[in-house]
Amino acid sequence: MKCPYCGFGTSKVLNSRPVNENETIRRRRQCEQCERRFTTYEKVETIPIMIIKRNMTREPFDREKLLKGIVRSCNKRSISIEQIEGLVDEIENAISTMETKEISSTTIGQMTMEHLRNLDEVSYIRFASVYKQFKSIDEFITELENIKKQKQ
After folding, report:
1. Overall number of domains in the chain
2. CB-based contacts of 133, cutoff 8 Å, min separation 6
3. What are the per-10-residue average pLDDT scores of the chain (152 residues)?
4. pLDDT digit string (tens) for 36-80?
5. Is 1 within a domain?
6. Are 37 and 29 in contact (CB under 8 A)?
7. The whole model's pTM is what?
8. Are 34 and 8 in contact (CB under 8 A)?
9. Cα–Cα distance measured from residue 112 to residue 74, given in angstroms and rounded to the nearest whole number
10. Which residues span the domain enclosing 106?
11. What CA–CA distances, in Å, run from 108 to 90, 114, 141?
12. Which residue from 2, 41, 81, 126 has the highest number of Cβ atoms inside 10 Å of its Cβ?
């Protein structure tokens, strides 16, 4: 590791310890030339999962964006934040285990609707109305009728 003070290329590790729930290793180092101490952090390099949006642009997967959308659809429902976070965890885990590092926003939307349908029908309808971009009351009613059929 290159010294940030003198630029010398060799240092020795004095102390190592895990941080961030064993996600990162903190290393205390000492330069072998100037003997000044500095800290480095080591963590696994991950390739971000890219989302292909409807307009074909790409952006990195954002857990917080998904969480906010689900929280909005569950507003004033008897669903705990732990349940919502568990749902987001399930979706995120499913995405991360896929073979590809690019996934369409449509796939994520479908996964989210499937999970919400099992959790709370009203939250599902709220999410679906935004996700599917209902243009009329008829589309909304059709979706409600589909839920009723699946329930029976």
Report:
1. 2
2. none
3. 93 93 92 96 84 94 94 93 92 87 93 92 88 84 85 74
4. 999 999 988 777 899 999 999 999 999 999 999 999 999 999 999
5. no
6. yes
7. 0.65
8. yes
9. 12
10. 50-151
11. 11, 10, 23
12. 126
Do residues 32 and 94 share a domain?
Answer: no
Identify whether residues 71 and 27 lie together within a single domain: no
- Please name the helix (run of DSSP H) or strand (run of DSSP E) that holds residue 13, with its range, or none: strand 11-19
Contact 95, 103 (CB under 8 A): yes
Q: Is 29 exposed, middle or buried (0-12, 13-18, 19+ CB in 10 A)?
A: buried
**Would you say 70 and 80 are in contact if contact means Cβ atoms under 8 Å apart?**
no
**CA-to-CA distance for 64 and 39, rounded, in angstroms?**
30
Q: Where are the alpha helices (DSSP H) in 2-136?
A: 63-73, 81-96, 105-119, 121-131
